[in-house]
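REQUEST ID: PR-0412
SUBMITTED BY: lab tech R.K.
PRIORITY: routine
TASK: structure prediction, single protein chain
INPUT:
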Amino acid sequence: MQVSSNYHIMAKPTGSICNIGCDYCFYLEKHKLYPEREHNWRMDDETLEQYIKQTIHAQDNDYVQFTWQGGEPMMMGLPFYEKAVRLSKHYSNGKQIEHTFQTNGLLIDDAWCQFFKENNFLIGISIDGPEELHDHFRKTRAGKPTHSKVVQGINLLRKHGVEFNTLTVVSSENVKHPLRVYEFLKEIGSSYIQFIPLVERESHTEKNNPLRLVLPHEPAAEVTSWSVPPKAYGQFLSEIFDVWVRRDVGRVFINMFDSTLSAWCDCSSSICHLSETCGNAFVLESNGDLYSCDHYVYPEYLIGNINQKTINECKVTPQAIEFRTKKQLELTPECESCEYKFACNGGCPKHRFSVSGEGYPRHNYFCQGYKAFFEHSAKYMQTMRTLINSGRYADEIMLMLAYQESSKLTTTGSTGRNESCPCESGKKYKHCCGKQ
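STATUS: complete
OUTPUT:
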């Protein structure tokens, strides 16, 4: 099997060490896999240099992206990343280098912002919506709220002109308030929004595995209370989409909407769990251990250590190749025959622990939500595809919808505030065109 040299590696220089303790975080407990590093958790200089050098060397095009995550990557301190930038310039060999950085935002100050700006870092900020929704799960280890410090960090990024996007975990709490979440994210200046649906399963049996949150093949496990229900996630996406498609196309970029439109236009998805195959997005632990996926940091998915063999050697191990090919081989019959398979490809393998309507195991937990959203957005996606294929811009759909809906309102006459909106959005008039 031929393996592309182009891949993405998410480096975790602090491992799972973080300065806050989010209730829903699946990665905090990964420290149990490395008990020997309890007091020596930092990525050392040798591993850093190997990561930089090997990643640049292995890419077969002229663009290389380094992604820094955690835990909380800012706990490494500025000197670590200053060295990373120097090393990437030293080994660049003429290639374009970009650094991206995912943080909870609590440690951002002027010095960090100046560094980010000078070195063109793209910053991802984790924030789950307005204060009470964000602070429901995202707390310090002492149980104190974090929202105000995150917003303070975002304001500093904006002050220094640092480019940023937001990552919002959709949980059992904020899924109930889609429009509040969306409007808040726009208010704080986010025009690139990632929604990550949350589901984890918790084991209640005694076993040798020290980890509490388990993989799909574990039979004795229950979905956690903070996980988002599939139907609610589909409704969350659909309600935000109804606003976005009328007001924000081309102004606000939402990962799920962009990916779906790409699929309708016969292009590949930018979201790994909706792509046709997995295995080109590795995760690097602080000691150099390389895993096939951020959500598969379990001993059986370790594919090597970059201090012992190169990244190129790791990615062609039998474990890595099996992980890469397995996604399409384990689709249920419903997935195979689904009209929206082209848009979701069965979803993330880690979420395949449900039983399908026809009784087949390993069905995706989010299937109902995905399908509801795909059905809801289909006619709009088709219109935008037609616009794009005609050499026009997708945002023209906003003018088209405004004209259609204003025409309906004109011909319909007076509409009561509590009646269904004539634009056929399914909402009451006072919550839709009456509000506009």
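NOTES: DSSP finds 14 helices and 14 strands in the chain.
REVIEWED BY: pending
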